[in-house]
UniProtKB/TrEMBL annotation:
SUPFAM superfamilies: Periplasmic binding protein-like I
Protein name: Branched-chain amino acid ABC transporter substrate-binding protein
Organism: Candidatus Thalassospirochaeta sargassi
Signal peptide: 1-18
One protein family per Pfam: Peripla_BP_6
Keyword annotations from UniProtKB, A to Z: Amino-acid transport, Signal, Transport
Keyword Signal on entry: yes
GO biological process entries: amino acid transport
Keyword Signal belongs to the record: yes
Assigned protein family: Belongs to the leucine-binding protein family.
Amino acid sequence: MKKFTVIFLVAAVLVSFAFLSGCSKDSGTIKIGVAGAHSGDLASYGIPSVKAAELVVEDWNANGGVLGKQIELVVEDDVCKPEVATNTAAKLVGEEVVAVIGHICSGATKAALGIYKDSDIICISPSATNPPLTQSGDYPNFYRTIAPDDAQARLEVDFATQTLGFKKLAVLHDKGDYGKGLAEFAKAMIESDGVAEIVLYEGITVGAVDYSAVLNKVKNSGAEAIIYGGYHPEASKLVGQMRKKGMDTVFISDDGVKDDTFIKVAGEYAEGVYATGPMDTSSNTLTMAANKAHQDKYGEDPGAFFLNAYAATTAILNAIEKAGSTDYDALTKALQSEYVDTTLGSISFDNKGDAIGVGFSVFQVQNGVYVEIQ
């Protein structure tokens, strides 16, 4: 009799523990990570994504959250450095996030993706454009709400050679995954098209103070324009030093330069610079609402990749809701089969993770602001 009583009591305790554990899990939050450069020279790219995620989550939580739970953001800084991004990813895995918005820079994204892959965590970047991130097939857990660099390079090359009619081009890059990758695509396209000549192809040293050596090469090469792959800190130096030398060479760059910080740093020398970036969707009703929400909460206009991050956060929460689960396979299916209305329009993702329904435009700095021209 005593033996039976002990067994019964032990069983009762185990059942109670399991019940309480289940209640605790069910009453918890759904965690979404936000990773990117939140400090350092490239913080102007990462902080807008944090604010975008905050606004989306606030809206969803005010309407009951998702799957009956509130959504919690876990924000981690990777300074856009691959060696930091691995630690950032490990922290987010440890926090048991179900998905990550980010990373921002392609190199940092690549460094982190394997860690998320091993833990079955979806990662949606608003800005990592390096094509192999999706096209290599190595990262089935990766998605992005921005078009890849091969599309961006195609637009830049066509703009330089067809719209502007240039025949001699210099192609420069910052030697990083993003900048060099874009430059390599541009170089290959120019050579394949055969309508223009590459008179200089060279990488620059990030962080250098003086770029006179490479700019002298550009001048001596007879290049009519520079196509530059990289970010705004180096671009602002190149443009400033080029203009101070009296060079009128046209400067064409990418979404790593299509940022208000570039204009602020380059000042008057930014005028006339071209840069490709996500298409202008300012007339979209959801975009207008998101921009207003940002202005109301933060007292300023949103920065680079805000709308892409807003769309990424919306997409993952919609996928969780449609899947009725945070299970990796269920989320994968939902992301690749469901269209969702976002600040970028109605989007979905192909089986590689590239966004369907997004693209690039060419912008030019006119009177101190970027204006979409093509």
